[in-house]
Target: Flavin-dependent thymidylate synthase
Amino acid sequence: MALTPEQQAEIEAARAEPRPTLRAVAPGMEAQLHIAHPILDHGLIRVVDYMGDDGAICQAARVSYGRGTKAVSDDRGLIRYLMRHWHSTPFEMCEVKFHVKLPIFVARQWIRHRTANVNEYSARYSVLDREFYIPAPEQLAAQSRTNNQGRGQLLEGAEAQRVLDILREDATRAYDHYEDMLTPDPEAGKQGLARELARMNLPANVYTQWYWKVDLHNLFHFLRLRADHHAQYEIRIYAEKMAEIVKDWVPLAYEAFADYRLGAASLSAQARAVLKRRLAGETVTEETSGMSKGEWREFVEEWG
Model:
C-alpha cells in the first residue's frame, strides 16, 4: 500500500487534532477515522468522514409518532423491524465517505452502484502512478465450467507462472510506453502527448483512487452483493473490510443487516412451493420441480 506524503500528512494532522462537536458520534467509527487499511497489493480503504449512528436511524423512524422509547433494547428491536420489513428511509439518515485506492477494472464494477457520490483521480490532469494489480498465485484460476462470470480450478506450476509473467510484463511495457508518450524531448522532435490521450494505452489493472460517499441503506445494498462469496475476489476483499468498518460504526444496524440480508436466502415462488411440498413429505426432483436446470442447481446448493 502506498500513500502519498501529502495524504499521510493529512491523516496525521487530522488524527492529531480531535475537535469537540455537538453532533452524534459513534465511538467505533471515531477509532476508524483516517486509518488506511491495506487491500490487495497496492490498494487501500479509509474513512474520511461520516454522519449519524444507530440512534440516528431510530430518531428518523420515530419522528412521525413522537419521542417513543429510548432504551437500547427498544432501539435494537426497532432497527430489526425496519430491516426485516424493508423500511429503508431511516437507514438513509446515516452517511459515510471513503477514500479508496483500487485497480481500474475493480472500479468499473464498483461504479455500477450508481447511488453514491464519486470523485475520481483524474488522469487528464495528473500522471497515474506505476502501480499495477498482480494477483497472488492462489487467486489465479481457470474459467468456471458452470458459471460464465466465475472462476474454476486453480492454475498451478508453470502455467500459473506464465500467466503472472505475462500480466507483469504487459503492464510494465504499457506503462513504459505511457511515460514515453508523455515525455517531451525537443531534441528528438517530441512534444509529448496530452495526458488525456496517453492514458488510453494503460491496462485495466493500473490503480486509480476516488472518494466515495454513500448513505447506509445503499451501502448495505453494495455489501449484500459485493461481500457475498459469489462476488469477484478483487472487489469482495474491499467489501469485507467495509463491512468490518460498518459493524464498528452502527453495530445494531449491522447485526440486523447480517441476519436479514447478508446471511439470509431469498426464495422464488417456485422454490417456496418446492419447500412446502418437501415439508409435506413429498420427494421433489428436478423434473417435477418446475425449475430450470440452473435454478434447481442453485436451490440444491442452498437447501440440499
Observations:
- Residues 124 and 197 are 8 Å apart (CA to CA).
- The chain has 13 helices and seven strands.
- The chain has a mean pLDDT of 91.
- Residues 136-202 form one domain.
